[in-house]
Design brief:
- By secondary structure, the protein is an alpha+beta fold.
- It has a domain of 48 residues.
- 23% of the residues lie in helices and 16% in strands.
- The strands form two sheets. It has a two-stranded antiparallel sheet with strand order 1-2. Strands 3-4 form a two-stranded antiparallel ribbon.
- The longest helix is centred in the last third of the chain and has 9 residues.
- The chain is elongated.
Length: 74
């Protein structure tokens, strides 16, 4: 290998997602509660949050929509 060549080792990217509460998780979203709401899939951080969401989805969403900023998928 010449001095002008460099090798870059890519680290495997850990999956990540943003829960409805706005928390960012660096983990596989399939292991977290998820719901369909208004035609979109939303992830929640705990089963307790899932229970709160299911008891009143509109109220839960309204309370958390200001903190929810999903990553742009690129």
């Amino acid at each position: 290998m010449s001095d002008t060549e460099t090798t870059e080792v890519e680290k495997p990217q850990r999956p990540s997602f943003v829960a409805l509460c706005g928390r960012v998780f660096r983990s596989d979203p399939e292991f977290f509660p998820q719901v369909e709401y208004r035609g979109q899939t939303f992830y929640l951080c705990t089963d307790a949050c899932l229970g709160a969401f299911l008891s009143d989805p509109d109220r839960f969403f309204a309370a958390h929509q200001k903190t929810y900023h999903p990553k742009n998928s690129a």
